[in-house]
Amino acid sequence: MPKTNDKEYDTTKILEQMKAEYWKGLAEEVEEEKGETVQLITFRIANELYGIETGYSKEVLKVPKIARVPHTPEWILGVINLRGSIVSVIDLRLLFGLTASELGPSARVVTVSFGETYTGIVVESIVDIVNIPKDSIKPTLETLGGIEKDFIRGQIPQEKEILIILDIEAILKSREMEESYGKG
Fold first, then answer.
1. What is the chain's Cα-based Rg?
2. Model pLDDT for residues 43-60, shown as the tens digit of each residue
3. Which of 61, 139, 171, 178 has its CA 20 to 30 A from that of 91?
4. Are 157 and 145 in contact (CB under 8 A)?
5. What share of the chain is helix, strand, coil (3-state, %, to 5)?
6. Would you say 79 and 86 are in contact if contact means Cβ atoms under 8 Å apart?
7. Quick one: CATH architecture of 37-180?
8. What are the C-alpha distances in Å from 2 to residues 5, 7, 10, 11, 16?
């Protein structure tokens, strides 16, 4: 075998490594084709587990000072100054008609956007960022009370509870939002 820079090259070993990497790559492609996944940021509101697709969320902030705006619905908590931009903050608990308790130190504002709408939603706590197989998302129960069914994309049964996936597009395009922001 020829020597280069005092190192021996074993072409058989190199070819075996290349073959193993090739087959590994094919196996990963097959795994990806088996089922698409969706990445969710999960959080708690009204002590229940919710999630939204991370593609809609821009950042997570500690709850800053929120300036209340007169003559707005109760579920619009007010506005914040986010690096020079004025961003409205909404409380989904109040929009959904759920019980809203005092926010604790783990409360956060998750900024979300769709189209030209950019807003913050208050959550009681962030739980995790998870990748969920799309085929594990079940349709919303028809008997579900409280939250308007149009605001829910689906649900995923967990070990001890149900993860409710919110439809941020539907929420941000809802009649309530349009009326409150003067787009309706």
1. 23
2. 999 888 999 999 999 999
3. 139
4. no
5. 25, 40, 35
6. yes
7. Beta Barrel (2.40)
8. 10, 9, 10, 11, 19
